[in-house]
User: Fold this.
Amino acid sequence: MGRYVLRRLLQFIPVFLGTTFLIYTMVWAVPGDPFAGKCGERPCPDAFVTVMTERFNLNDPLLVQYVKYLGQLLQGNFGETFSGVPVGQLIVDAYPTTVKLAVVALVIEAVIGISAGLLTGLRGRGFLDNLVLVSTLFLIAIPTFVTGYVLQILLGLRWGIIDPTVSSEAAWGELLVPGFVLGSLSMAYVARLTRTSIAENLRADYVRTAVAKGLPPRRVVGIHLLRNSVIPVITFMGTDLGALMGGAIVTEGVFNIRGIGGLLFRSILTKEGVTVTGVVTLLVIVYLLMNLLVDVLYAVLDPRIRYD
Amino acid sequence: MTEPTDAISSTTSRGAYAAATTEGRQRGLWSDAWRNLRRQPTFLISAGLILLVLVMAAFPQLFTSVDPTYGDLSRQRQLPSVDAWFGYDNQGADIYARVIYGTRASVVVGVLATAGTVLIGSTLGILAGYYGGWLDALMSRVADVFFGLPFVLGAIVILTTLNAPGSTPGPVRIVAQVVLSIALLSWPVAMRIMRAAVISAKQNDYVKAARALGASSRRIIFRHLLPNCLAPVLVYATIALGAFIGVEATLSFLGLGLRSPVVSWGVMISDARDYVRIAPHLLLFPAGFLTMTVLAFVMLGDAVREALDPKLR
Assistant:
């Protein structure tokens, strides 16, 4: 196992390089003058352009620019924006909020999704099954921003149960509703994946054996059935955390949460390439670590899967 | 299961060939599935709904004679009435006509993006899962690179890169770009699902038996692995189809996807977002059609999965 983890960590290197290079190329290859609109309602003075071109190595070929950027990054320097704000500071301000939001969303989707999937998978066709299927369909069909606005209006403005917007501290309790909105789509996926998986494994020989041995139903379901059935669900949720953090743009916009989603959206539109690359790099690292965690969990959950 | 072939299986040449050469042999998987499907009410209902949606997408003028882009501000946000079944939107345009005409863009984006995603993802997934080794390592890393990019962000970056700010690309170009960005960013999901299914199916006895009998890799992939591994990808694809139509709406919402004068459900939903409190019908009807379409596709996917997966019978 140790050797496997080490090998996976080594495999991170090409993926890390590939993703950062991809995003660097896409951001800096955006057609148009990088200094357009940077100096208000007039063209930038030559002195400014010269300094900035020098600072961001804009005269070098793209590959050289990227290598220089990477060299700085590896020393822990995320660079600074055109106006001189260190990107590292922007990230430190925004990151914890988004991580919190994504974790809340993940927990909500796991608890509700797996329970709903388990219940319907065990019961088979019937009223409850149809109810869950239809409600997951609604969650899938309605875009996040609609769910967000509707909950914000109903719970926040009409009934006054929650604050319509999240304060800048972003306490855990405040993030419950935004987390639900963010995780609602994935919750539907989790419920359906669990249901499919449970229904399939319910007829497996090992379940029949476990029942025949006279094990109590709780143990058959909890140890034998669930452990085997959550493997695809765990894959999904592991890869989902990164997606949740990146997809938080809309939820953060609706609930006015100061996270990296909004930071990124503004940076892309104002062509702050350094900020975009830095934040996406962090998101990619989170994603890679979650993938590793998922693969290691496979072996723990299912001893038939071995890495050696 | 052992009766001679009938008209249905002769539609698939391989099944017909197999049945003709060895009489009494089991029918092909897909023709067998088709026989099962025809008796399922959920399949019939969803197929009917999908057919309706497709007809709406292809021939909107069959359903309404009102111009969906004509607006009259004097009837702004009027409630549903006999004249306009679904009422009027913020520009005073007929919502019923807009919903009907909006079907095309939404369905085209959803279907093309799903087809692209599944095709790329499952091809690469089956190759990676079956051959393993360096091919698997390489593909998985490439998939990681694309999947590591957060979905909405990746789409935003791609769409802003493809369209310089201030440009006004035509509707066809925008649709192509939206489809491209969705497929490019979501194929790794389909690939990972397919790869996981193939890896677990590969260790089954029937694959080992086939290999021991001297079956070629090509035969094992197409006859044994593909039918046994397709179910999870199909389930994903049907759900993804709905999600992609929602993604199209999200991109419109952020001002990057389709936009007026193109009529689509996504554009309508994002137009309605500021008026939900005072005029919920602006949101209700496009969202309802969206939900109905997704419902149809997911029901279809479920029925197909059950028919295809021999383990569930």
Notes: Chain B has a mean pLDDT of 77. Chain B has one domain: 49-68+82-307. Chain B has eleven helices and no strands. The CA atoms of residues 163 and 169 of chain B lie 7 Å apart.
